Each structure stands twice: as structure tokens, then as C-alpha cells.
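Need the bound structure for zinc ion, inputs here:
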Amino acid sequence: TDLPALLAAMPKAELHIHIEGSLEPELMFQLARRNGVTLPYASVEDLRKAYAFSNLQSFLDIYYAGASVLLHEQDFHDMAWAYLQRARHDNVLRAEIFFDPQTHTARGVSMETVMGGLHRACTDAKNLGVDAELILCFLRHLSEQEAFETLEAALPLRDRFIGVGLDSSEVGHPPEKFARVFARCRELGLHLVAHAGEEGPPEYVWSALDVLKVERIDHGVQSARDPALMQRLAQDRIPLTVCPLSNLKLRVFPDLAQHNLRALLDAGLVATVNSDDPAYFGGYINANFLQTFAATGLDVRHAYQLARNSFEGSFAQASAKRRYI
Ligand code: ADE
Ligand code: ZN
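Answer from helper R.:
Posting the output first, comments after.
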């Protein structure tokens, strides 16, 4: 069989994509012009040259600056629509899309503007054959109070998102900081996920599970350092949304050949492959599959396992999941 062709063509779900991280430099400059925003870069090439990261924080600084061009509902729509067309191209049938409202509300852009544009793109995506839903992420470098205020602002639009997540600077901002926010979201019937064990220690994965009670772990690759945690993740079938090219660009692993995706799968974990911030890390979901398989020697059985894991790990309706799997 032609493994690269299979990886590209197989139906898949994407469970870890930050929509602000899908904003390509070309669209960023187009929106800057449209909105009269001045970017601190002379050109698309100049901007791309700045995409040389040493860790998570060095990326986040540039990622938040890039989002400054997003002002109007149409801007959020256009960004999400561009991603959804890419997703269709990669045969993504289900996309669960993160967005960071605090990055925008802090600049005076309303929750209605952000979610209005993103949700309209998700609705339009039905015509592409992509089933897309939104997950609201709290920025963990900000306070519990600010997270509660963000939740309050979003609740009038409760029918436009299916869950909440936790992202941004991990080390120094353990899951416990948001215990009460997540408890409230759980009462509201929202799905719960959190970034944990990207740069942070296995302890953060434990507390995401036991304190926040999340259903999935975003990244989670540091879990491999803790055998008891690996057993817990396997036993409870907690999905890990792994992002290999992100891990490479943010230097979580020195090269893709050293990535632990294969070890996670071989330990029986529900690991999945995702793009995280494809405009910044140099590849959408199929590029993540192709490059990781080429570098680590994963085979056709791993390909089927990863495709099945992506639908099993999704928050799609049980009936839709059965159809996908
Ligand atoms: N926000 C966007 N991408 C992120 C990542 N990889 N980790 C934490 N926060 C993020
Ligand atoms: Zn992420």
C-alpha cells in the first residue's frame, strides 16, 4: 500500500486546532490592510522569518500579536472559513475548534463578534461535509476571576460552543488555579478539556484529570515520564490530542524521530494527531501525519488506529461516531 496516500485520504477528526493559530501570514496582512492595523513586520516574508521559536512562550508572544488584526465578525469568519477549507482538503470530517476569547475581548472586541463569525463559518462548513464545533479556551496566565468573567460573557451564546479548554503558558499555571471555573462549567453540562503535559510535568496531567475532571488531555506527551499515569490514561481511555509539528517547533522534542507518539500508541493510549497552530508550525493535519510517519516508522495499522482514535476521542454524537468508525 501507499502509506502517504492512505494517510492523506483517510477520514479523520481534528481535536486540537487553535483557530487563531490557523491565521496564515497572507490573510493576516490582508486583514491588517482592511482594518487599518499596522503590523510590526514589513512583509509576509519578514513575518515568516520571525517564526523561529525556542519554547512555548516565544511562540505565544508572536501568536497573540498576530491576532491583533482580527476586529470584525467577518474577520473571524474568514479566518475560520480558510481553516475549514483546509480541513476539507485533508479529509477532516469532524473539527473541534479552540478559540481564545480573552485575546480579543481584552482589545475591545465583543464576545458576540468573535463567536458570531466563528459560528457562522462552522455552520457554512456543513456544505463542505465538515462537522465543526467550537471549544472556548481560558487563558491560564490570566486570573480565575477573568476566566469567570469570560464564562459569564459567553453564556448568552451557550448554544454556540460545546465545551471549554485551558491553554497559554503552562508552567507556573497549574490546572488547580481553575478548579472552581471548571466545576461550574461541568455543572453547565459543557465538555471539559485542558492543555497539560506539553512543557509542564506529569503532575499537571494528574490534576487536569482529578481536579478539573477533563475528558481529554491536550498534548499530554510528558505523561510518558510517569508509568502510573500512563496506566491511568490507558485504563480510562483518556484521549491525548498530540501535535507533533508543534512539539518539534516548540522544541518539546529535538527532532520528529525522537517523538514519543509511537510509545503512547504502543502503551494502548487513545492518542490522536492534530495540528495545534498550523499557520505557525508549518503544516496542517495531513502534514503532521505524513512527516511523523516518515520520521518514526509508524505503519498502516497505526494509521487506522489513529483515525479510529480521533473519532472515538471526539465529542460527536454517539450515532455519528459509529458511522465514522
Ligand atoms: N495556544 C495556542 N497554541 C498553544 C499551545 N501549543 N500550548 C498552549 N497554548 C496554546
Ligand atoms: Zn494547543
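Comments: The two ends are 21 Å apart (CA to CA). The domain at 3-23+72-324 is CATH 3.20.20.140 (TIM Barrel).
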